[in-house]
Amino acid sequence: MASGKSILHSFAAIGLLLLAGCAPRMVRDDSQWAATAPVQPVQPAPADGAIYHDAQSMELFTDPRAHRVGDILTVVLQESTQASKKATTSTSKNDSVALSAPTILGQPVTLRGRGLSTSLSGKNAFDGSGSSTQSNQLSGQITVTVARRLSNGNLVVRGEKWLTINQGQELVRISGIVRPQDITPNNTISSTRVANANIAYTGRGSLADANTQGWLARFFNSKWMPF
Description:
The protein has 227 residues and is mainly beta. It has a domain at 61-79 and 138-227. It has three helices and ten strands. The protein has a six-stranded mixed sheet with strand order 9-1-6-7-8-10. The radius of gyration is 35 Å and the shape is elongated. The two termini are 30 Å apart. Mean pLDDT is 77; it is low at 21-27.
């Protein structure tokens, strides 16, 4: 009985490990998505009577578009993707072989009174088809900050937005590289103009839990299910 219990315990441990692999990933607070603070300016040197000083940060003409680390930029989400795939396969094969009975001096050769003629035939056919269609759409706006300015002038932006509605939380995250030329005069840019874009839209709470399969259903629908 002791060995039987140990086997049951082993199967239970394996089942828990498989279920842990099938469990969805929870949304975590990540510092790499946090807003970037602007670089602190260097303290100016004591006034020496000059109108302009190298250590001072004087901008005679300002541009409302983001161009420095810590500047704020609004990304307009305009994501829409559609994919369709269809495949059809059909194969057929027919084989037929006939061997007539041998004859000697005009007389057929027999075995125990039976002729030796033989015939073989075979037929094999396969028909398969499959199709897949997927469509995704994401719209809205999210304001991000400039995290880094590259040597060629492009800006690395990142940011996130949390929405708490009733008993659920919705999270939108985005990061990528934008060109200053693509930023509009009102300091916005389309998400289709963001290079290496990493866009995530997810949520947690009662609503997300209601749309998630239970652990047992996930196990039976996982790749670990042999049937």
